Amino acid sequence: MIGKLNHVGVATPSIEESVKLYRDILGATSIGEKFVMEEQGVWVCFVNLPNSQIELIEPYGETSPVRAFLEKNPKGGQHHVCFEVENIEAARDDLVAKGAAVLNGGKPRIGAHGVPVIFVHPKDMGGVLVELMETPTSHP
Amino acid sequence: MIGKLNHVGVATPSIEESVKLYRDILGATSIGEKFVMEEQGVWVCFVNLPNSQIELIEPYGETSPVRAFLEKNPKGGQHHVCFEVENIEAARDDLVAKGAAVLNGGKPRIGAHGVPVIFVHPKDMGGVLVELMETPTSHP
Lengths: 140, 140
Hints:
2 copies of one chain form a homodimer. Chain A is built from 3 helices and 9 strands. By secondary structure, the first copy, chain A, is of the alpha+beta class. In chain A, strands 1, 2, 3, 4, 5, 6, 7, 8 and 9 form a 9-stranded mixed beta sheet that branches. At the A-B interface, strand 1, helix 1 and strand 6 of A face strand 1, helix 1 and strand 6 of B. Chains A, B: This is Methylmalonyl-CoA epimerase. Chains A, B: InterPro entries: Glyas_Bleomycin-R_OHBP_Dase, MeMalonyl-CoA_epimerase, MMCE/EMCE_epimerase, VOC_core.
């Protein structure tokens, strides 16, 4: 089922500071502009690597789901891993049939790449918050 | 400096259980055999994806550095992110010059892919334990 590792989600208290880290310290050469995803309560910024991406996420709004993560990890840290799947609804149905807890009542949302995504609770995923996204038709 | 996202390191109390998860629940189709890296104190097993890998790591021996991680995260979780660099010593020198804390006194070790690696302390990397590895001459 899972295909490419599309991105690693990294939570940060400050996308600006993280961009400095990836650009000036680690020497990443392709970093997008930050943008807001209001419904998800996050600012998002992609660090583009030749084969994958780091998705920097910073809380947006007081009820952002990333706030609890940052309370436990004030400097930030690895938040989720995202794998591509061919069909999000087929993937969701398969996971639910196998007993995995799909968040948001199993309802796909449109993610930062403009394609539908679901999240699977870390308790069923070896402590890893797993995002599945439908393979985008064009890669950045 | 950083090139491809070579792998995401995922700590687990049981590689066998994690293999079941990635194979039977997430449907990964290419998973290697587990092997021990005595000096690093870990069992290792790679889940191969089309563009990258998940590196499952389980403690080996009583002094394994992964034990402390699992005490905090008993189900396991994301442990590190590994980026490829062209030359590990040049990367190390560059990071040290920029003030980053390179573990093991800055001395590269041979990693699970048979090429030299270094680890950078998460305190300088936005809470993420960053591994840098010299690009392998052949990818799996």
